[in-house]
Design a protein that fits this description.
- The protein is an alpha+beta fold.
- It folds into two domains: about 50 residues, no CATH class; about 150 residues, no CATH class.
- It is built from eleven helices and four strands; from the N terminus they run ααααββαααααααββ.
- Strands 1-2-4-3 form a four-stranded antiparallel β-sheet.
- A hairpin with a 5-residue loop joins strand 1 and strand 2.
- Helix 1 packs antiparallel against helix 2, helix 5 packs across helix 10 and helix 7 crosses helix 8.
Length: about 200
């Protein structure tokens, strides 16, 4: 089918292009991720094709109203365009809202934590002890000495960032990290199967 070929090729090219400069292992992972993304996108494409023109219009209008209620009159149009273009992580025009595709949110969180050793070392000592299985006293002493970056480097070296991120969300939700304004998290669903998380950032 030409449609499957075109959709699959487009998504595969987009996914693998992000890792052109990566090492062999990164390229291997990106190849597998690209296959998965292409298959998911084609399945979504088939589902959308089943809708009539009227159904598509109604779903688009419903999504527009929901976005308008969430992020305001001045932001919903461009945000909806970004979603329709398949963008996974972006800000509203006024930079007050951040919108992240739900199945990418954990990867974004892990990436941001890995790039900020100070933040990693700033979590409560009991929480860091639970995640790393190290004595809480280790983190209490280091934090008392303000060695937050050293703690962050330790967590990264132990390969515990993914686990820490998952526990962080389980305890406090994604809004605690992404929403600098009020800590809240809002959900938005595009065509019933593309789910996004929306956060107020300022």
């Amino acid at each position: 089918m030409n449609e499957k070929r075109d959709v699959y090729a487009l998504v595969f090219q987009k996914a693998t292009g992000r890792y052109q400069q990566g090492d062999v292992l990164s390229r291997h992972h990106s190849y597998n991720a690209a296959i998965k993304a292409a298959n998911n996108s084609y399945n979504s494409f088939l589902m959308i094709q089943k809708y009539t023109v009227e159904q598509k219009m109604n779903k688009t209008l419903s999504a527009a109203r929901q976005l308008k209620n969430l992020i305001g009159q001045d932001n919903w149009r461009s945000a909806l365009e970004q979603i329709m273009q398949g963008n996974e992580d972006f800000y509203s025009d006024d930079d007050c809202w951040r919108i992240i595709k739900a199945d990418c949110a954990m990867d974004v969180l892990v990436s941001e934590l890995e790039s900020d050793e100070y933040l990693l070392g700033s979590f409560n000592s009991w929480f860091l002890a639970d995640v790393t299985n190290l004595p809480e006293s280790v983190f209490q002493i280091l934090q008392k000495s303000e060695a937050y970056e050293a703690i962050g480097e330790l967590i990264i070296s132990l390969g515990k960032v993914d686990e820490l991120a998952q526990e962080y969300v389980r305890h406090d939700g994604s809004g605690h990290h992404f929403s600098h304004y009020d800590g809240n998290e809002h959900s938005f669903c595009w065509y019933g199967f593309h789910e996004y998380r929306i956060f107020r950032v300022n």
